[in-house]
Write a structure and sequence with these properties.
By secondary structure, this protein is mainly α. It contains 2 helices and no strands.
């Protein structure tokens, strides 16, 4: 059997053309798959960029919250110090008030004792005055003796 060169070329050409079509189909399939992978990669990169952006926003928010928390803790510390300071002032004022109250009570007791002593002195003075008024005046006695009265009038 002899092969005709034209037939043989035609067969080679058909095989080559089929192979070329097959290669073209494989290339197109590979290109579609590469395009799909590129699209997936771009979507993943966009998703990663969004997540990175969200992460940065959350880090900023976390930092701001940490700053706020620190400020609030400092405010609480200052408020606690102010409360303690005010309590110390109130305790000091209470001690001063208690001391003044004790002194006032002592003064009132001393005043009562002094008033009682004054009343007693006034009573003694009044009794002495009454007793003194009961004693006849020496000038009157001398006048009575001169006038001839021998008795002492009471």
């Amino acid at each position: 059997m002899k092969y005709d060169p034209e037939i043989q070329i035609s067969i080679y050409f058909k095989l080559f053309f089929c192979s070329l079509k097959q290669k073209q189909a494989e290339f197109d399939s590979a290109r579609l798959q590469a395009d799909e992978e590129r699209i997936k990669l771009e979507r993943n990169q966009q998703s990663e960029n969004r997540m990175s952006h969200d992460l940065l926003l959350e880090k900023d928010r976390s930092h701001e919250l940490t700053i706020d928390l620190t400020q609030l803790e400092l405010n609480v510390k200052h408020a606690t110090q102010d409360r303690k300071h005010n309590q110390e002032i109130l305790a000091r004022q209470q001690r001063v008030f208690d001391r003044e109250l004790r002194n006032q009570k002592r003064r009132e007791q001393l005043l009562k004792v002094a008033q009682d002593a004054l009343k007693q002195s006034e009573q003694i003075f009044q009794k002495a005055k009454d007793n003194f008024n009961d004693i006849p005046n020496p000038d009157d006695l001398i006048n009575q003796v001169k006038n001839g009265h021998n008795f002492i009038s009471s």
